[in-house]
Amino acid sequence: MKGNIIVFEGAGQKLQQQEREIPTLKSGEVLIKNLYTTICGSDLHTFSGIRKEKTPTVLGHEIVGRIVKIDKDHPEVDQAGNKLLEGDLVTWAIFCSHPQQDWLDKGMPQKSDDLFKYGHAKITDQDAFHGGLSEYCILRAHTCVLKVPNELPLPIAATINCALATVAGAIRLAGSLNGKNVLVTGLGLLGNVTAAMSKVAGAAKIIAVDVNTDRLNGAKSFGADFIYNSNDEPNLSATLAEHKIDIVFDMSGSPDAIELGIDSLRTGGTAIWAGAVFKTRKIGIDAEQVIRKLLTIKGLHNYNFDDLQYALSFIKDQYLNFPFSDIVSKEFPLNEAQDAFEYAIEHRPLRVGVKMDQ
Ligand SMILES: [Zn+2]
Fold first, then answer.
1. 327: CA distance to ligand 1 center in Å?
2. Which of 10, 65, 160, 216 could cysteine-pair with 34, CB 3.0–4.6 Å?
3. What is the pLDDT of residues 146-187, one digit of tens each?
4. How far is the CA of 87 from the centre of ligand 1 (A)?
5. Cα 168 to the chain's mean position, in Å?
6. Rounded mean pLDDT, 291-303
7. 164 alpha carbon – ligand 1 mean position (Å)
8. SS3 of residue 51 by DSSP
9. From ligand 1's centre to the CA of 41, what distance in Å?
10. pTM here?
11. What is the distance between the alpha carbons of residues 19 and 335, in angstroms, rounded to a whole number?
């Protein structure tokens, strides 16, 4: 059996479609027919050279697909204990490793040794089906898999294992949001999901800050009560301070936004940083302010298995209550992946989708 993959050789080079023989499954592996992949911000960073990846590779890690075959050594249950069958729609963690108890105990399996990451691995002769821009994906043994309900639209389901799960991790780190005032900086998909999850978690007021007015207007329908364009507001940290911010989530990675968030927190506040997954300048923090205001700063990279489960249960319950059906603004077939990336870079929508033949 053969399948097509889209090969990325490096920034500035055109994506190439290649047909490859699908290898026989190894112990504990699962063969997936990819159905839909959304292009994540980090894919765009790699594509445009802001971020380096070992090449050649198959990009795309926000994937949803159906099980084609399960190796006999697989336990045949998902992370929630549901029986897995051929034909099931599934999402899976973007990372996997041999289970390592110390990292599991810390709630950080995403930092295990010898981690493998889907959509980030170098292609070899034997191993090319590990990304989203591909007709098939082979899930390695011990990959955290979750069954997805068939009624969940594929463009939404695709975002579970990166955007939604990462925000679920950020929300976990924040603790209870009930009655809290929340600031979100950076209103891409992560920022919008943060607003929606905060709203559902009972936040009293959600304030959104970005440099793009269209994105800010969109954020209102994801739960933002107040929006500010940081380019238009000369004294924004004073304005934000009046909102008595308890929690700030930075989803932008912008050093200016991160500094603004810290400056805007009230006493006892917490900053959660999840956006800066690329090199930025060092930020300036006033240590005296952190001490006197008893501030807490936490970083989040990827997510753990509980976060992935939370992301799935959140979207199952909420996908009709917020405009999740609008997050993909344009869809391309797999053999037009190059156009999909170019469109995403030119128009910067929340997501561009790549739809595989079903
Ligand atoms: Zn991602």
1. 15
2. 65
3. 999 999 999 999 999 999 999 999 999 999 999 999 999 999
4. 25
5. 10
6. 98
7. 10
8. coil
9. 6
10. 0.97
11. 11
